[in-house]
Every structure is written in structure tokens, then in C-alpha cells.
Amino acid sequence: MNIEVMFSSKTDEWETPQWLYDELNKEFKFKLDAACNHENCKCDRGLFVERFDGLQEEWSREESIWLNPPYGKEIGKWVKKAYKESQKGCTVVCLLPARTDTKWFHEYILGKAEIRFVKGRLKFGGSKNSAPFPSMIVIFRGIAL
Fold it and tell me: What is the DSSP string of 4-22?
């Protein structure tokens, strides 16, 4: 990914830092990367954003899902999808910008998920610079209704 666009609105894709994914994967043993591209897929099975619409696919066939969604205007739809899929019994672990003032945070995360705020700012995709926003790990524990 071009570093110049990482801190602009030209991209909404922020590649998960490998160390962070590895740490969470030890705990959750992810089976599916629900929103990735061919350069940044973290699991053996991925819903590639170029070929699949992860918002339309069913995730709940897998026990444990990793989600680092596009951070643009559609992010609320991804958070809603993660919440809804977890209601079918799977666990969805999300890397998200810590935007606690958003509608999607209040409707789908607050009081419904475990939240782990990341200390400091992450460096995405091998960038030398930190992200211009704080991050959080949101865990929707699979509880079938």
C-alpha cells in the first residue's frame, strides 16, 4: 500500500499489524478473515473484498472470525454484521478505530461486546508512522439466541 495514502481519505484499508494479529490468534484461533485483500489476508480462509461482499456472506459457519473492516463510511455496516453473526453462535474479533462517539459504537458495541482499548497508536501495514486515531479490539462472543 502506498504510504502517502495511509493518512488521507484515499484509502479505507488498514492492514492489521502482524504482531497484534498473532497475539489475538493465539487466544482465538481464527478460521476466517472476513474482510481482506490478497496482500493482507491473515487466515487460510478469507473473504476477499475484491471478489466477495463480506457483508452478504455468512460468517457463522466458522467458530472464530477475524475482522479488520474497511474504515470508511461503511464501517457501521461491518460492525452491525459482526454483531449479527455473533448472535448465530460464532465469535467475531474486530480491530476498529476507537470512535466511541459514533452511532455504530452505541448501537452494536457498548454493553454488547468486550472492548480492549489499544495503548498508544498502531502502525498499520509496516508504516513508519502511527495511525492518526486510537484503536480498540471488540469481541463479540458467540452466543446463539
Answer: HHHTSTT----PPPHHHHH
User: Phi, psi (5° rounding) for residue 86?
Assistant: -65, -30
- Rounded Cα distance between 97 and 75, Å, is 10
Integer Cα distance of 107 and 105 in angstroms: 6
pLDDT tens by residue, 18-27: 899 999 999 9
Of 101, 139, 111, nearest in space to 24 by CA: 139
* Domains with residue ranges and CATH for the chain: 3-140 (3.40.50)
The rounded mean pLDDT for the chain is 83
Whole-prediction pTM value? 0.84
